[in-house]
Amino acid sequence: MQVSDRIKAVRKEMNERGLDAWLVPSTDPHLSEYVPACWQRRAWVSGFDGSAGDVLITAKFAGLWTDGRYFLQAAEQLKGSGITLMKMGTAAVPSINDFLVGELKPGAVVGCDPQVLSASRAATLQDDLKSAGLKLKLGTANLVDRVWADQPTLPREPLRVQPRRYSGETLARRLSRVRAEMKVTGTDAHVLSALDAIMWVTNLRGRDVECNPVAISYLTIEKKQATLYVDPAQLTPAVQKHLGRHVQLRPYREAGKGLKQLATRCDHIWVDAGNSTRWVIDRLKGAELYSAMSCVTYMKSRKNGVEQDGMRAAHVRDGVAMVRFLRWLDESIGREKITEISAADQLERFRAEGDLFQGLSFRTISGYAAHGAIIHYSVDEQSDVELKPRGLYLVDSGAQYLDGTTDITRTVLLGKSATREQRDRFTRVLMGHIELGRSRFPVGTRGLRL
């Protein structure tokens, strides 16, 4: 089934439901940036597999909105698809909301799956459409799912316990800290949808998403109990013992029912509207919602001593693998055939030989020469090229270890000498880093301001 046929199939579903537009966000029911194969709907319907981007389909138009990291990749992958690349952030390209307002006639209906639309985004979209006489219809069926014949099933990889020697804190202690913040806000329950937050609180790890140690789940925390919604097939005896009396278990498929029940017994519920879908909010009707960033976001960003030590140790271990790789590259370039893919594979092998290695933290960006200038370049069999003993090679890579996560970038000169231009650019970057390292700034200043 070609991309153009997939778009036609979605349009047929739209027509049957009286929809004038259908929005396909890149995310999933947990608003993840990286999603399991079964929920990679935007990638399937468009052919573009970058980590960010949304597709909008109308009766006569299909467009992909993505940011500058993916302009080159998207332009290549969209060729012949009939999908227009909408370059976000450029002057001539409207936002999806503005495009809908400008293109659709009053009375037109825009559809989307509420399980992949954040509560905050849904509210903004609804307001913008309403101001132009348009309607937003959030249905129970995802139209891409209806036409995706060979859609993968939900992953069911076993969960594992993250030992205290790596987390530095027990499950009971983390639940107690969340409950203390609930008391401050006057809430009876806190609903967590973000997978990384759930894994942090429960001291669990999974393998449901490539390069991310998470499991598909929901977690609700009340004053006296907590409930984890997860596929029972993923629960090992060790995990069940770990959760013990602290967390009760229910099947993932019962999350919707469980949220409705939560709303009947809790008057005030804490949700993070930016990290919760409209689907979650709709199931909490009847309760008063306290909408604010989850306290877990702050807690997990402030590492305890054990976590800090682990992160340092992981980077030392990762650094050893990188030094081994750089030595191998220096000794092998020009003597044996090395390609972008084989170089990335060799780096992964060096990492895998180290202690506590669990896998990559993202797909390695391995770009030689012109490919190194492509932001978030993703090498495949078609684009793979051989590295020569000249020019520049960029490798952006990282790993997941039991005690920490790494993400480092190195630009390597393959040859005996650099050009005048290369020396100039590297010197300017170095000067910028030195100035940044010497800068004094007020407490609370964000990195973007620097």
Characterization of this structure:
It is a single chain. Helix 14 crosses helix 15. With 450 residues, this protein is of the alpha/beta class. It is 38% helix and 18% strand. Strands 4-3-2-1-5-6 form a six-stranded mixed beta sheet, sandwiched between helices. The protein has a six-stranded mixed beta sheet with strand order 12-11-10-8-13-14, sandwiched between helices. Strands 15-18-19 form a three-stranded antiparallel beta sheet. The mean pLDDT is 95. It has 16 helices and 20 strands. It folds into three domains: 145 residues, Creatine Amidinohydrolase, Chain A, domain 1, CATH 3.40.350; 142 residues, Creatinase/prolidase N-terminal domain (Creatine Amidinohydrolase, Chain A, domain 1, 3-Layer(aba) Sandwich); 145 residues, Creatinase/methionine aminopeptidase superfamily (Creatine Amidinohydrolase). Helix 12 links the parallel strand 13 and strand 14. The two termini are 47 Å apart.
